[in-house]
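Interim report, section 4.2 (structural modelling).
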Amino acid sequence: MSSDELDVPSPEDMVAAAAEGATRGALEFSKKETIKLLKFSKKEIGHIINRLKNRELYFLEDEETIDVAKEMRQRSEYSLFSQYVKDKNLRILFQMGLTLRDLEFSENEIKLKKLVGTIRDKYTVEGLHAAYFVQNGLFSKYLGNVLERPVTSKVLSHEIEDLFNNMDDFAVFVKGRDDVDQRVREIINKIDVKSPKTFIISGIGSATESCEKITKKVMDGLSDYESETYNSEVKKRRIYFLNRIDDEGI
Amino acid sequence: MTEYISLKTVSRKSKIEILKALGYGADDVFVLKGDEPHLDAYTEEPIRIDNMLILPGRSPPVIIDNNPLSLSSYLEDYGDVL
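Predicted structure of the assembly:
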């Protein structure tokens, strides 16, 4: 093994760290301002491959990357979701929503935009809307709303999966520049076609005004729905749940 | 116990030698499988050498792109192996 630069631990130390107990040595090493890149001998490569195949070793860019991905799976929101949803792709979309929220919170615009593009490419715009639903904290509000009805776990699982698989049939995200009457027609049309038990209209900041106008007009055109409103100080979000009134109640 | 090495600390030459030993190749930018760019199993995008992850698989190790979607997908497939 040789080194590219000086001012670093000895090559012998690095060999030991890389081939046998790699983690600590490599990590401590990577913290130095001047980085000496590891170069492995053929024998060391062979040893590394064996350890890779035996699942004793893996290569990452940095520990944070995997820690963030693992942490998403530990979140209580995700635990709740995964109790009801077994579909792998929906679970990944949920985790992507949580990741988008974190990136937004940390104001990491570049990573945020990149991830939005990756989600859209893989899961289409509708999948991205499902991730937005989670990003904007709507899942817990939705769950709270649904649980006001007497509903079995099986039915709840079905309703959540249906929502996440067909987000654009069950929810709209209003923007401030939206044409109110056009949005009203669009929403009433969606409700007429699917007759969902719950339809969600949501807007942030300046869009809440349009959101309110749209919901009022939609409700004027529907006889078998009643609306429930949530206001959140976070990003000044407003959410309307339009709940279908069934014969036996909501 | 599973350990990891940060690819930031590994020379490009050694990265390519590891790839070759695993049956892959590399050009100036991408990981290759045969003559074609090796695609990430989850995003179906070519994987850049400077943005790859080499992770435990069911038999051979898997090489994926370092992005949140691929990592979450990997964890869904392989559980908490890391």
